[in-house]
Amino acid sequence: MIAAPSVLVFDVNETLIDIDSIAPIFGRIFGDRQAMRGWFNQLVMYSMTVTLSGNYVDFFSLGQGALRMLADIHNVEISDDDVRAIKQAMLTMPAHPDAADGLASLRDNGFRMVTLSNSPPNPDGPSPLEHAGLSHFFEHQFSVDASRAFKPAPATYQRVCDQLDVAPAECMMVAAHVWDTIGAQSVGYSGALITRPGNTLFPVSGLPQPDVVARNLPDLAANLTHRPDETSTQ
What we know:
Layout: E1 2-3, E2 7-10, H1 23-30, H2 35-52, H3 59-73, H4 80-91, H5 99-108, E3 112-117, H6 128-131, E4 140-143, H7 154-164, E5 171-175, H8 178-185, E6 190-194, E7 212-214, H9 217-226, E8 230-231
Parallel strand pairs: 2-3, 2-5, 3-4, 5-6, 6-7
Antiparallel strand pairs: 1-8
């Protein structure tokens, strides 16, 4: 049993918005929609590498580099238009169908909600959350760009607490990736895993496990609001 959090900190890509929506572009470029998953895995791996090595470039720049690397690996020619298409698609991904209902339920039950994304702010227009129609649910949209370190670096999660003036124990990280919940738990958050397709538990003894596991956001809302003072692992 854990104390119910007062602040829910949401990951954005894949947790709230649907990265599978950009798979058709990869199908056009590589002849295989599943190439998108290979690209995204490389993007996450190299974001962690950049942080661990003490470097920093923004997530969109890394995404473009990962795309060109994948093209070289597969001997595929890629144009500047292809790179721009991927960047634009990353900025305009739709929300998961369950997201709005789940967020509304959590909001109506009194949770403070913010986001923490690896993606940088978009200086030229609406954020991905605004494009997805979800931004009004959140009191703040945090980016790791301010910390110049990608998740799961502990500093990124601690900065959210510092900005909100709350203790880590008051926060729960909600993400579709266990590496994200592990990072947040390392500074004292609790963790909730949303098992989007292709994501599940990482059952390794000695590593922090999510405190809550939910199929989608309405399922998370039901779990967190079932008992007002405590939550339990499903």
